[in-house]
Write the structure tokens for this entry.
Amino acid sequence: MDSIRYVNAPLSMVFQKCNDSEEFKREFDSLASSDDDSVGEWLRLAKARGETSESDQVLLTLLTELHRKVDALSAYIKGEDKKLISLSSQGEIEAIGYEHFKLKDSHLDSGSKYYGRLDMPFFPQREVPVFFTAISPKEAKIDLIHERDEKDWNAYVVARERVMIREMRAKK
């Protein structure tokens, strides 16, 4: 097995062993469609038709995210919170790679499959659901992640690599 290149990344996650549970798959799917609210869906379709080509994309994204936050506040006030599965373990991630991550402490059973949610520091901020397999007590390989989340994950890895390079240059 080739060595995995990691970069430091202070992230946290909750996770639990799973054996192809339909409950975990249902939550995984629901977290993918959480961004498919009415305004988000309208914007996606408008982009597909080319109706937003002359619009400021950043402004459209910010307005869409503002609409989602208003919807979330409205749901909270009405007591309509989205219930997520309570996962049994919590861990701190110390390093990430493009398809892997490493926990600070030994929480995993090698070869076991897990479902987890990562708190990611990108915009719009959200919990990222992942299915992963432990390759050692501290290391895991991501098996399944939504396409949009994978793109954001990879962009985050690149950003962390840049930070690491700047830190190494500063030490010279």
In short: Residues 35-77 form one domain. The mean pLDDT is 85.
